[in-house]
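Recall the central idea of this unit: under ordinary conditions, the amino acid sequence of a chain determines the structure it adopts. In this exercise we apply that idea directly, starting from the sequence alone.
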Amino acid sequence: MRIDQYLWCLRYYKSRNQASLACKQGHVRMGDRLVKPSREVLIGDKVKVRKSQIWHELLVMDIPKSRLGAKLVDIYRQNITPDDAFDHANFQSLSKGPERDKGSGRPTKKDRREMDDFIEDE
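Accordingly, the structure predicted from this sequence is:
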């Protein structure tokens, strides 16, 4: 089975076209090598997929015949993503800077200067 079709079947991408584009953009790897969308997936292969700034690592357990329900995905792959990958992503989302109240409009000059001072202090 093709890697783009495999990732689509396992619900990593909503369409096969998105999975194909991800392969072309370098978001899918086997081992440490970039793969083309037409690359064949075999049982036992290790696949890395970059989604939401996290590299998810998968071990191919079996090849599905078609797209699966979300509950059946674990039969066909084993998630071997290290826990520190998720910690790093959470840390980056927390360090964006000061938060503004939703619906408070555009920042004033004073607000902007305070945000700039906050960013320069780090």
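The chain has a mean pLDDT of 88.
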